[in-house]
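Hi Y.,

Following your request, here is the sequence exactly as I used it, all 404 residues.
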Amino acid sequence: MGFESQLHEITHRLPPTRQSLLFSATLPTTVAEFAQASLNNPALIRLDADFNLSPDLTLSFYLVKPSDKDAVLMIALQSLLRSETTGIKQRQGQAIVFCATKHHVEYLTTLISGAGYTTSSVFGSLDQIARQQQLHRFRDGESQVLVVTDVAARGLDIPVMDNVINYDYPPNARLFIHRVGRTARAGQKGRAVSLVVKDDVPYLCDLEDVVGLTITDPSNPLLGSVPRALVDDTRQSLRGMEQDDGQAMAALREVMRKGQGMYERSRTKASGRAYRKAKDVIQVSMGDSPEHMHPDFKSYSVVGHSDLVSSLERFRPAETVMEMGNKGKSIVGLMSERRKVMERKRKVPPTASEKQITEDLPESKSNTVSYISAAVARTHQSGKSSSQRFPRPVFLPPARKEPS
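Below is the corresponding structure, written out as tokens. Let me know if you'd prefer a different format.
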């Protein structure tokens, strides 16, 4: 916070016989150096909760395509924000949506509000008064969804939180734990849903190693796909909703897309082992078949739709466009027939003068000069105009032998 010099001045003015206690939420290098210099043989008591997850927290990871993230976000909100009964009072569910940049916050706030949810938003460049107003609305239950960035989420005082949604997956395990730690506090149950694209799977593998999760456990898989039919229906609904204000949404989406590119270029890389492991994880978990489906959607099924979509995605033609309709013929015979067709198309009926020249065409190259002189003399004797004196000769290609 910039108070290092002031703290050193205070410690110099204190009596040497004293008891000092230093409390810090984190222990960066500067704080550790200050503790070593200003404290006498201190005892370190550390609540090592940076890499621990609450046992009351339920994790879900949805493997999605980048173009489907908006639709899957709507599906997650519809599933999570249901009215919950606490005693004799019915309370409306709430959720925090974490995203990468303030451009994401602006776009998602407009999108979620258009879907009928009351929404608050907080990002880094928001002034303090507006920030307090947005948080006050969310804490009092006036809004269902709070859309925030990681920078803006630091220090938020929200005592009870039901759900956390990671629209953009965090690039390291510590940040993921800080996000999902907003819910499942003080013995309360909580849900954390993360939207994971292919490029995010290596970071998910790093998280698996840090916290000891088994993401792809066959008995209880945490990672899976969303039904294709459900995603398509939701995307269709979003398109209908955006028709009323399509230009504004398109502009916000384009700004968000550029911000996403800058965010992806600036984030840290995952470990090499995580990239190697991610290939197997994607192969096991991505697809539209029932075995690839996330357990949250096992009850959802459309007869024949998943099989049809999967068969279309797996279809690979057995022949190219040039080979279609010519089964059983050799390549040599096929190309010979095509040459004949092209020659017939290029052939143009000759005029009378061109026909006379082609009939008098010499057989040997040595008679070419005398032939041209005779042709020029004939045209002069005929008295034709200068534009008609020299008819264009037609040089026919030599006859080609057919392959045996």
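Residues 85-89 have pLDDT under 50 and may be disordered.

Thanks again,
Q.
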